[in-house]
Design goal:
- The chain has 120 residues and is mostly helical.
- The longest helix is centred in the first third of the chain and has 26 residues, at 3-28.
- The protein is built from 5 helices and no strands.
- It has helices spanning 3-28, 30-40, 47-63, 67-91, 97-119.
- The two termini are 14 Å apart.
């Protein structure tokens, strides 16, 4: 099996797992997440739309129906992770590791999909 293919599916699978857990937490544990968003300085009314956006981004990444949607999904997730990182750093709560890991998985998925699907 091709190393690039294994890398793409592994990184994208781990990213999917992380985003699915995050979106699920936003939806099913809203009462626990709302104070965290308030502490980070974000309005709590973006929790459900953000969960939906994460799910839609995963659908765009896995289906690859549109190059524009695929690019917007990667860019949107990148902005989300960068904003999460800086929000955690700004309040000095030390909880920025998840955003760093997510950004690395996203970058790995993006660059390996460019390499893998260029060959296919």
């Amino acid at each position: 099996m091709n190393k690039v293919k294994v890398g793409y599916y592994t990184l994208t699978g781990l990213l999917t797992l992380m985003l699915t857990m995050s979106a699920g937490m936003y939806i099913f544990n809203y009462d626990e997440i709302a104070p965290v968003f308030s502490k980070l300085g974000y309005p709590v009314n973006i929790i459900y739309p953000l969960a939906l956006a994460k799910i839609l981004a995963l659908i765009a990444i896995w289906t690859r129906k549109s190059k524009a949607l695929l690019t917007m999904a990667y860019v949107g997730l990148f902005y989300n992770f960068i904003l999460a990182f800086y929000a955690h750093v700004a309040i000095s709560d030390g909880e920025f590791a998840g955003a760093v890991i997510a950004t690395l998985l996203l970058a790995g998925s993006y660059f390996s999909q460019n390499k893998y699907f260029a060959k296919v």
